[in-house]
Amino acid sequence: MTAPAVPATGLGVRATARVVAEADGRGGTALPVLAGDGPLALRRTRPGAAGGAGGGAGAARVTVVGAMSAPLGGDRLALDVTAGPGARLWMGAAAATIALPGRSAEPAHYDVRLTVGDGATLCWLPEPLISARGSDLRMTCRVELAPTARLLLREEQVLGRAGEPPGRLTARLTVRRAGRALLDQELGYGPGRPGWDGGAVLGGHRATGQLLLVDPAFEDRPVPVRQLGETAVLTPLAGPAALVTAVAPDALRLRRLLDEVTADGRMFTN
């Protein structure tokens, strides 16, 4: 169910949605907690109801449905997702998230927390985040992985709607495995960010994204470095993981680049 959003200080809203997935002991995955809040409505969906990797047989599928325009200036939104030991969870979104200016001059905050237990698999495949003109969004994604957890995580940012400059966007991704840092990066785009549109960062492109794959099997079979077209590369990380980074002129071509690797990530759909 979705609870009413709670007004935050200023003119924004404060909302936290929660998902807990647990192995049901019969080869499937149960959802004892599925609690939407404010703009973050959650729906359990059937296999095949959305595109992308499905998390495999016995996986639970949850789709985030926007219940109202968000995030706006001053909003503080959070999504807390836990896949317990042995659970298999696929999470996606019904539509892109659009960061918009609000009545408050304060930036919006959107915090995602993902926890994946031993033997669990989480496919986190939201739709793109669009940074609209005049918006200011601080987004964080923090991931905690058990030693035998598996993760497929996609992030996509589109800088501005058609024909408009982008807003201000800061995105930080922190991933820890077995208590140790696996990946910690922060990216910043838009007004006030020196060089974000230069050749060393986006080179004039307006869509950027990454795909992170974590699997204990990579310890014995590391992923080789591979170039994907002219504007994407697949590289191994210092751990059982691989990272794809890509830029593209628009969201459609960015998704095509990342989908090449999703198709290769069959260990997440078996």
Automatic annotation (TrEMBL):
Pfam families: UreD
UniProt main location, coarse: cytoplasm
Name of encoding gene: ureD
Keyword Thylakoid (UniProt): no
Family per similarity comment: Belongs to the UreD family.
Keywords attached to this entry: Chaperone, Cytoplasm, Nickel insertion
Subunit structure: UreD, UreF and UreG form a complex that acts as a GTP-hydrolysis-dependent molecular chaperone, activating the urease apoprotein by helping to assemble the nickel containing metallocenter of UreC. The UreE protein probably delivers the nickel.
Function according to Swiss-Prot or TrEMBL: Required for maturation of urease via the functional incorporation of the urease nickel metallocenter.
Keyword Chaperone: yes
Full protein name: Urease accessory protein UreD
Lineage of source species: Bacteria, Bacillati, Actinomycetota, Actinomycetes, Kitasatosporales
UniProt-annotated location(s): Cytoplasm
Highest taxon in the source lineage: Bacteria
